[in-house]
Amino acid sequence: MSWPQDDLGPARVVFLRLIEGVDAVVVLDNVVLGPAIGGVRMTRRADLPATEVARLARAMTLKNAAAGLPHGGGKSGIAVHTDLDSDGRERVMRAFALAIKDLVDYIPGPDMGTDETSMAVVHDEIGRCVGLPAVLGGIPLDELGATGYGVAVCADALEDAKVLTLAGATVVVQGFGAVGSHAALRLRERGAIVVAVSDIEGATYAPDGLDVAELLEFKRSGQPVGGFPGGVRVPRDDILTLACDIIVPAAQPDVFTAATARRTRAKVILQGANIPASPEAEAEFHRMGILSVPDIIANAGGVICASVEYRGGARTQAFQQIEEKIRANTAELLDRMKGSDLLPREAATQMAMARLRRGAAYRRRL
Ligand code: NAD
């Protein structure tokens, strides 16, 4: 796998020995639009996945720019050799925070293996991070459903552009976690009919519509969605090929391959998860006339929330910004695609690159 190295970045790659047996790497891919926000991934591995961290940092550069945020992209990886108890994790996070103290262009956030408690430790040491507990000024985006809300705002913008009509639209949601459940609730509020929902264990189907609020209660009581009495249990992945207006993949990467894409019978796909479709699947959707709005546009609610939190903003401001930015970005995406044969992801990347170029023009060259 190759390491991104081009005009965009990386601006800086820093290898750190935190404590005996614990190494870290921080990649600041690009800081042209502002300080880089990106998660800290803690993994139990013998080697440091620097190439992977660099690729994830590049993805953040494009995502933050596509979202229209004044932030660059970065990422860090911490490789620990053994399972750590909470004291061990705290020691590692304190050492990490002190090691990045002077890397002022990097704002860490939670990622796989770290959480709001880890960020509270970073905050305690250097006062610079996002994803904090609410009591320290954090905006609890999963609890509030910020990303799911953004997915529904993306659908609003498609309705404004007459791509779809939400009242009566049939919706399938893959993954009923923080993103999927809130996307389902918000789309239901707009008059859409959520006909099928899955989680990792199975799926539930009701052609006349599921009661999403009741399904959420049921799920919160610890039961898998497949057992919901308001629907019929169906095999988990069957719902991906149902005829419907909208599919929201909100579970895992690489759900759609070219082969599964060819069996898809939706009109629109709103990518709640990160990279839920392979490049071949996205090309296939385009060929079939299915609009698949890429993750960097449709699920930007999370990064927008992080940016508002960084500026000390409140949750209401986060929701206002999600509304404003995702609506405008979806409209721009459609504009760029109009009259061209650009794939949605190509158009979104063009948007991000145009903003990065405009930002770069303001940098010192002498
Ligand atoms: P989550 O853990 O809260 O929920 C994931 C859900 O997907 C669970 O219900 C799980 O049972 C289900 N699931 C897992 N594998 C499945 C499968 N093969 N088929 C059907 N269901 C399956 O996670 P989340 O925070 O909702 O995130 C979902 C996806 O969205 C992830 O890819 C994440 O990286 C991405 N994402 C999340 C946010 C956010 O704000 N949370 C923002 C951007 C992107």
What is the fold's blueprint, element by element?
Blueprint: E1 12-19, E2 22-30, E3 36-44, H1 50-67, E4 72-80, H2 86-99, E5 106-110, H3 116-126, H4 141-144, H5 146-160, E6 170-174, H6 178-189, E7 193-199, E8 202-205, H7 212-220, E9 232-234, E10 243-249, H8 258-262, E11 265-270, H9 279-288, E12 291-293, H10 295-298, H11 301-310, H12 315-337, H13 344-360
Parallel strand pairs: 3-4, 3-5, 6-7, 6-10, 10-11, 11-12
Antiparallel strand pairs: 1-2, 2-4, 7-8, 8-9
Structure classification: alpha/beta
How much of the polypeptide forms β-strand, as a percent range? 15-25%
Lateral strand order in the biggest sheet: 9-8-7-6-10-11-12
**Roughly how much helix do the residues carry, as a percent range?**
40-55%
- If you average the pLDDT, what whole number results? 96
How many beta-strand segments? 12
The sequence of SSEs as H and E is EEEHEHEHHHEHEEHEEHEHEHHHH
Taking pLDDT < 50 over at least 5 consecutive residues as the criterion, the unreliable ranges are none
Count the DSSP helices: 13
